[in-house]
Structure formats: C-alpha cells, structure tokens
Design brief:
Blueprint (H helix, E strand, L loop, with lengths): L1 E10 L6 H9 L9 E7 L6 H11 L5 E6 L5 H11 L2 E6 L4 E3 L3 H11 L3 E11 L25 E2 L12 E4 H10 L18 H11 L3 E13 L7 H12 L2 H12 L9 H12 L11 H17 L1 H19 L2
Parallel strand pairs: 1-2, 1-4, 2-3, 6-9
Antiparallel strand pairs: 4-8, 5-9, 6-8, 7-9
Length: 331
C-alpha cells in the first residue's frame, strides 16, 4: 500500500460531535507524512451528518483529502470495515467521533510506525472532557472509557495488557491484511447506534495482529481529548459499561490461551469443561486475595452465561484459532 495515513471516523448521527473532531484533524502537523486522507463513514445517520461534515470541512479549508462513505448497515464493525476496505494508505488511524487529537498526534504516530515495522497496532491516551464534573469513581475504570495510559512507558503494552483500546489506535495495514488473509473474523458483536454490545472489536484486531507476528504498542506522546456527555458519567452507565465489556472476557481469554500455547489441540466438549471449571471457581472467590471480588464474580457469571449460549460456537472458535495459528506459524 502507498505510504501515508488514512484517518477513519465512523459516526452515527454525529452532527453535534463532529465540529471538534474535524477541527482537531484540520490543524494536525504533517511534516514528512507523504499523504493524509480523512474517511468519514456515515453509519446510517438520520441527522444530515454527511452534508454537515462536508460543509464543516470546507469551512476549515479542506487541508487534507476528505471522503464521505455511506455504510447503511448499522454497527461500528460494519462502518470500520468499510473504512478499512477503502483506505488507500499503509497506516490507518481510528478516530472516534468524540475524539479530538492533539496537534502532533498524527506526526508522532507516523514517525514511530516508520521507525519500527514490527508494530501492528499503536495506541495513545485519552483525556476525559465533559460539560459536567467528572465523578470520583471515574479514575478507577478510566481505561474502560479509553481515558488512561495503556502501559508504563512507550513500547509494547505487555505485561500490563495484550491489546489497546480502539480510540486513537493506529493499524499497520500490512499486518492487518496478513491476519485477515489467514482467516480471522470478528467473534464478538459491536456497538450499534447508541446501544452498547461489547465494543470489543478493536481488542480482537489487536489479537489478530499478535497472532500474525506483530507487536501492540502504546506511545506516551499520543494524546487526545475524549469528550464524554453527561449521560456517560452516570452510575447507571458505569454499571452497564462494566457488564457489557465483561461479555467479551471469555473470547479474549481464549485468544490469549491459544496464543500462549496453553491450548494446542481441539478439546471435545470444551465449552462444558470450561463452564464446570468456572462454576467450581465461583465459591472460592470470597477466600482469594484479589482486589475486586465483586468484579471477578460478575465476570465468572458472565462467562458461564456466554458458554451456555454459545457452546457450539465456542468450540468451533477454538478449532479455528488453532488452525489459523498453525497457518501463520508455518508462514
């Protein structure tokens, strides 16, 4: 692919959010970046988002190539895939429609990616902004809101974590295309409109890239504002977000176990064995030395529910991951 950066903004009825996002992109420093394009993916909007966005971009002087692409099928995965399929350049930047990038974001990211071709995905740090006071409980789960550092310093996010959050994430398209060609497909549902499902699609992409032999990095000098409406800073939303993200835990754990070599061959009735193991684990939680026992309990319950609902899919997923892993290792 051609050298440069494709910025993907997926939006559903984002007319009110886009002015800040587009303004921040329009003043990005672009020294030594051969080309930049902005792809706005209109995901079934009904508020005139497309016309508004084009008018706003023209007001800003159209500093970079700007395209609006319609994706009528609801769901962030669908919108993001449309953006990835239409991207011209070797690096893609996922910019959510409530993110305002610091002026040196693109320049810093491109420089680091050019210096290390083993980086498959590169994440930054969101800084929470809101018209209301940020609640005291926010810092404890800031990562879930894409508003926290993702490692202690610039580099691979291990051992803190295995993936980075999607907001502000660069994707190396060579790595992405290699992973997709090997057979990876999304296993978890995504956000549709304003509804929360799992929002785990970007974590899955990170796992694909790790399987393909690439590293997942965080950079301290990649910073963006994450605009949070008052509706996302309520205790009700916090509980909903926490429960929603935990739905993706069993699949994330499966990726990790196959990648680490813990699971190396198909297991008959694997879902049932996992469900029984989790069921036996739950009564031990009160006696364990862990920080958040309530969180661990809820996550375990969600895992059992997932395994019961997706039992055949779960076993097929294990088998498919083993096949893809072997295929990638063998070149």
């Amino acid at each position: 692919m051609k050298r440069g950066i494709s910025i993907i903004i997926s939006t559903y009825n984002g007319k009110k959010r886009l002015p800040d996002v587009l303004s921040a992109i329009s003043i990005q420093k672009a020294n030594k970046i051969p080309a930049i394009e902005v792809l706005l993916i209109d995901n079934a909007s009904t508020d005139g988002t497309s016309n508004f966005a084009m008018e706003k971009w023209n007001e800003l002087g159209s500093p970079f190539e700007f395209k609006i692409i319609s994706e009528p099928k609801p769901g962030k995965i669908n919108a993001q895939n449309t953006g990835l399929e239409n991207a011209q350049y070797c690096y893609v930047l996922i910019c959510d429609d409530d993110n305002s990038l610091f002026p040196d974001y693109i320049e810093n990211g491109y420089k680091l990616l050019q210096q290390n071709n083993q980086i498959g995905a590169l994440g930054g740090r969101g800084v929470a902004q809101s018209e209301v006071l940020i609640p005291e409980w926010f810092d404890e789960i800031a990562y879930m809101f894409a508003c926290a550092p993702q490692a202690k310093k610039t580099g691979d996010v291990r051992p803190e974590r295995n993936v980075v959050y999607g907001a502000g994430m660069f994707i190396n398209m060579e790595a992405f295309n290699k992973a997709r060609a090997a057979g990876f497909k999304y296993l978890l549902p995504s956000r549709i409109g304003k509804s929360l499902v799992t929002g785990a699609e970007d974590g899955e992409v990170c796992w694909w890239l790790r399987f393909a032999g690439y590293e997942i990095w965080y950079a301290e000098n990649l910073i963006f504002y994450h605009h949070l409406p008052a509706s996302r800073l309520t205790e009700e939303y916090r509980e909903k977000l926490t429960n929603t993200l935990q739905i993706g835990f069993p699949v994330g754990k499966l990726y990790k176990r196959v990648f680490s070599g813990e699971l190396t061959k198909p297991i008959k009735l694997f879902w049932l064995k996992e469900a029984i193991y989790t069921l036996l684990y739950i009564p031990t939680i009160p006696f364990l030395k862990i920080k958040n026992k309530n969180k661990d309990f809820k996550r375990s319950v969600n895992q059992i529910i997932y395994l019961l609902k997706e039992r055949s899919k779960y076993d097929n997923t294990l088998n498919n991951l083993l096949v893809i892993s072997k295929k990638l290792k063998n070149g």
